[in-house]
Each structure stands twice: as C-alpha cells, then as structure tokens.
Amino acid sequence: MTPPDVAVTEVADPLAEAAPTMELLLRELDRRWPREAERLHRISRYALLPAGKLLRPLLLMEAAEAVGGGGPAVVPAALSVEYLHVGSLVHDDVIDGDAMRRGRPSVAARYGTADAIVTGDALMLGTFGVLTDGTDEAGGLPPGRVLDAVRVFAQAGVDLCRGQAMEGELRGDLGCGLDRYVTMTALKTGALFRAACRGGAILGGGSPAQRHALTAYAEHLGSAFQMHDDLLPYTSDSRTTGKSALSDIAAARPTFPVLLCHAMAGAPARARLEAALGGALPAADALRTVHELLETTGALDAARDRATAQADLAKSCLAELPRSRATAVLAAVADLSVSRDR
Fold first, then answer.
1. Average pLDDT over the chain, rounded to an integer
2. Can you say whether residue 7 is alpha, beta or left, with left for phi > 0 and alpha for psi between -120 and 50 degrees?
3. Which of 193, 240, 262, 339 could form a disulfide with 218 if both were Cys (CB 3.0 to 4.6 A apart)?
4. What is the C-alpha end-to-end distance of the chain, expressed in Å?
5. HEC letters along 32-96
6. Sign (positive/negative) of CA torsion 267, 273, 278, 281?
7. Rounded to an integer, what distance in angstroms lies between the CA atom of residue 334 and that of residue 314?
8. Is 186 within 8 Å of 256 (Cβ atoms)?
9. Distance between CA 108 and CA 38 in Å, rounded?
10. Burial class (CB in 10 A: 0-12, 13-18, 19+), 64
C-alpha cells in the first residue's frame, strides 16, 4: 500500500506512462549499436540487446523530470548508466561462471572469457564518453551538471567494484550477518540505483534537497530490489527469470533470505542449511533443502515483508518532490521492484 504522504499524482497506470520513455531508450540503443560492425561492437550489442528491464535508465529519466528537467537531453546519460550496468553483468558472469543471462547464453558462454572481459571493460569505459554527449553549446546540458554527474557515475563504478570484492569475502560465510550483507548490496546493487537517481536529479537541475530525496529513494529502492531478487530462485523458475536458480547455491552466496533463515533457525535446521550451502549436496538437492528451510522457519515470508518495507520507505522519500507524473512512475517502480517475477 502506498503511504499517504507519497508525492504521487493521479495517474491511472504510471508504468504505461513510462512506455514512451522506454521506447525512446530502446530506439536509441538500437541506433547506437548497429548489427553490422567490428567484433567488439557486435559482442557489445549482444550484451545490450535485447535489453533487460532498462530500469536504471528509466530511473535517471524520471528523476530528471521529477525535478523539472529531463527530456531528450538526458537520454545519453540514461544510456550510459545502462552501459555501466551491463558491463558489470558481463563481468559478473565471468566471475560466477554463469552460462545464462536473460534467458540465453551469457557473453562469456557464447564468446569466451577473454572477449567477455574486454566487452565488459569497453562498455564501462564507454559510459563516460556517452555521458558527455549531452553537453554542447546549443541547447545541451550545462557542462557543470555533466561534470557533477561524471563524478557520481565514477564513484558508483568504484562502489560497485567494492561490493563485488566484498561479496567474494562473504561467499560461503553464513555467519557473516545481515549487516555485512546489507553493506555489500548497498555497494554492489545500490550503487547504480543511486547513480541513476542522483545523476538524473543533478542533470535535471534539482536542488540539494531534491537530490538528497532522490538519493534516499534510490537507496531504499536498491535494497528492496536486491532483497526481492534474492527471493526469485525460490519463487520463480529459470525460464521466467532468465538465469539459473542454482547460481547462488552453486556459488555459495549467502543471500538475504538464507541469512534470515540462518538467524531464525534452531540448531538442527541451521546445521542442515550449512550442509546444503557447504557443498555437501548436489546443487539441485541443496536448492530444494534450502527452499524447504526457508518455508519452515518463516524466513521466506520475513524476507518478503522486509523487501516490501524498503519499497514503502523508497516511496515515502518522494514526498519531498512536487507531485507529478514522474513521481508517480518512480512510486510504481518501487512497487514493481517487490512484485516482479524476473
């Protein structure tokens, strides 16, 4: 339920209102990455298209509009956050050894590890070139705003890497605790949500208070999104998610519901959980065991409730902004983050 003080306006279907923005982003992606090109370009296109949810570019566009800016001038910046995101996913699949991404072979599985690493590098480095496309002397974005956005994106890239390194430290450690997990996800997942929303607020000319509100919105949204994402192996099948449900189990990643389960379980259930995540069982059997324990301990429901609470906090941050179509879309994205099946 949307809190009463959220800055939404009367929009019958906010996500339908976002459809033209999504179509614009897709057209521009397709235009910038033609099919006939050199090898690195073709592999980059494979990574980018067909596109995923385009959630981060949408957030940037709507954040800019929510503070009174936006429009075509911020499209390059919106695409740049997608390049940073997709480049990081290409590298993630190399690190985790994942063969599937978005329902088809990952870049590494199709083209090999070397080309995947180079492609991820190229996409992430290309972020900054396309971000500055919005600057010109005839009606473009003010250079000072673009420079501030570059700083935000650069920090996001570093935070993302910090989160990835921390995830490696936590791998296989069910005793790491929820606080360390939340810190890790705030870096690895939250970084690009913050970059998109804060970057959009900067490029749109938002006040310091508006930038702060959208940054806080993004932080809660990122938490909600990752908490829900961790539930998908137990609530959706791989044909829907486009990624193997066994990935987290095989990599011994201590995800949010698993850590909740470890904290809530008694000694016998905790021992079973540790055995399942410790490689004592085949991955498919381990997944079934973990799913059963999540249900019987109540951790699955508890994780859903906490994810929903984070989504509600994200929406409450929008109260600092003028009511508009854009804030309605941002509120709808928060709801979607904890109701999606992929």
1. 91
2. beta
3. 193
4. 21
5. HCCCCCCHHHHHHHHHHCCCCCCHHHHHHHHHHHHCCCCCHHHHHHHHHHHHHHHHHHHHHHHHH
6. positive
7. 7
8. no
9. 18
10. buried
The reply to whether the predicted model has a pTM over 0.85 is yes
Cis-peptide into 50, omega within 30 deg: yes
Length of the chain measured in residues: 342
Measured distance CA(96)–CA(255) in Å, rounded: 14
Tokens linked to 192: 């690009």
Can you say how many angstroms the Cα of residue 71 is from the centroid of all Cα atoms in its chain?
Answer: 23
Contacts of 310 (CB under 8 A, 6+ apart): 220, 221, 223, 224, 227, 338
> What counts of helices (H) and strands (E) characterise the chain?
18, 2
Per the structure block, which two tokens stand in for 249? 């189990």
* 3-state SS assignment for residue 123: helix
* Model confidence at 24: pLDDT above 70: yes
Q: For the beta carbon of residue 283, count every other beta carbon within 10 angstroms.
A: 17
Residue 211 region, left (φ>0) first, then alpha (ψ -120 to 50), else beta? alpha
**297-306: buried (b, 16+ CB within 10 Å) or exposed (e) per residue?**
bebbebbbeb
The pLDDT, as a whole number, for residue 179 is 94
The CATH fold assigned to 14-337 is: Farnesyl Diphosphate Synthase (1.10.600)
User: Residue 6's pLDDT band (boundaries 50, 70, 90)?
Assistant: very low
Span 218-239, mean pLDDT?
91
Show the tokens assigned to 336: 């979607």
Q: What is the pLDDT of residues 98-124, one digit of tens each?
A: 999 988 999 999 999 999 999 999 999
Token couple for 194: 């913050």
pLDDT band at 282 (very low <50, low <70, confident <90, very high): confident
Q: Where are the domains of the chain?
A: 14-337
